[in-house]
Amino acid sequence: MGRVINPDSNGKQRNQLLRTIAEVLRRLGQKPEMDDEGKDMVALLVFSLREIDQGIEESAQAWEKRDYWMKADELRQRWSWAGRMADQLQAVVFRDAWAELPPLMIKLFPYVSDINVSKMTRKEDLWMGAYTRLIREKPPAN
After folding, report:
1. For residue 38, which of 130, 116, 139 has the smallest C-alpha distance?
2. What digits encode the pLDDT tens for the residues 8-61?
3. How far apart are the first and last CA of the chain?
4. What gap in Å lies between CA 103 and CA 89, rounded to an integer?
5. Which residues contact 37 (CB under 8 A, 6 or more apart)?
6. What's residue 139's pLDDT?
7. Nearest by Cα to 48 from 77, 28, 70, 72
C-alpha cells in the first residue's frame, strides 16, 4: 500500500493563511483611518492566526504520537507567536482600542515579510462580516 498524501496539509493551509495575513496587512496599511472594512480585516487576522495556531497544535500532536517530542516542542516554540498575536489583536477589537493596532501590525509584519505580494489575490468577501462574527464571541460584561 502506498503512502497517503493529504493535499490540504497543515503546512499548505498555514502558507495560505500567511499569504492572507500578508495581503490584509498591506491593505490595512493603506487605510488612512479605521472603518468598517478595516475592522473586518482585523477580525480576519484574528481568525487566520487562530487557525495557524490550531494547525501547529495538530501537527505537534502528530509528531508526539510518533515519539518525536523534541520536534513537537520546537514546532510549538517556533510558532507560539501566532496564538499570542491572535489574543492581542482580539483584545484590541473587544476593547475598541484601535489606536493600539499599528504597533501590533508592526510586530506581525516580520512573520510575513518574506511573502511577496505583487498581486492581491484575496477578495473582499473573505473578510466581510468577520468583525461581527468575532464580536459575537465577546464575553458579556459583568
Report:
1. 130
2. 677 889 999 999 999 999 999 999 999 999 999 999 999 999 999 999 999 999
3. 58
4. 11
5. 31, 124, 127
6. 82
7. 28
Report residue 103 as a C-alpha cell. 504597533
Q: How far is CA 117 from CA 18, 21, 24, 113, in A?
A: 11, 11, 10, 9
Provide the residue type at 19 as one letter: R
The residue among 54, 46, 31, 44 whose CA lies nearest residue 126 is: 44
> Among all chains, which residue has been given the C-alpha cell 505583487?
118
Where are the extended beta strands (E) located within 1-142? none
What is the rounded CA–CA span in Å between residue 125 and residue 121? Answer: 12
**HEC sequence for 57-76:** HHHHHHHHHCCCHHHHHHHH
Q: How confident is the model over 91-119, as pLDDT tens digits?
A: 999 999 999 999 999 999 999 999 887 77
Rounded CA-CA distance 77/138 in Å is 28
58-91 pLDDT, tens digit per residue, is 999 998 999 989 999 999 999 999 999 999 999 9
At 137 the three-state DSSP class reads: coil
For the chain, the domains span: 10-135
